[in-house]
Fold this protein.
Amino acid sequence: MDDLTMDLVRLCHRNRDGSFGTQTNRRRGLTAMANELRDLGYRLPTAASLKPKHIDALVERWLDADKSDASIRNRLTWLRWWAEKIGKPNVVHRDNTHYGVAERGEAQRNRAQIFNPSKFRSVECPYVRAAILLQVAFGLRREEAMKFQPHRAIHGDHIFLQASWCKGGRSRTIPLATRQQRETLYKIATFIQGRGSLIPPNLSYVEHMKRYEYQTHKAGFRNMHGFRHAYAQQRYLTLTGLPCPLAGGKRWQDMTAAEREADRSARRQISAELGHARLKITDTYLGRAFQ
């Protein structure tokens, strides 16, 4: 048990708010967050070391994992409890929508993010800029974009993502369907010479992740995972000719039989391109699917 985990357990023992079940869930949730922060490269010596950058890193990780709004709201509640008990309540924003998460009772929030060229130009590191371009063009997760190796990934009509780059160790292919995608790959292949990846040779993955987080936040980017949502929604539009339900398209009950079949087919294709084993996860990107 590391120092942060031990300190959080002590904090929970000193502050027994709520029922026994509430206390147990909170303690388990907070100790899990301590492990996640350590995985992200943040070794906090005490619970009092919590800062806004740690909140942002955790939320982005949960969004990357496609956690539901309800799940992230619960975790933010535990984080606010943590921040309150250490006398730093402003570390966690009071509004869940600040993190791209719907409030309780609110309709499902569309997390798709539009690419902002002005913010992009203010990102200093060329490796970070290249990773962002991949996220926008192909809907890649942060880790996949950073570990991307052009000499291994780029093929004639698709890119191939190796299992070691992907969540869950599942390799996959993504077709080249747009000029933007081809232009993005040309820029990256020109930038990365030889057999390198989008992690600078002098940095580890964790070190570069911290640089990525710092520079994107400094540039004003939030919810980088939103580019993955935007990719899914654009692919749905391309494959079906209609906007998805979450982007203002028809609800399932209002679709014709042909539109429902196109919806199913598009979701299967998009799920494969995003690297998901469960079709149901497309609800998070596109809105509710068939019943």
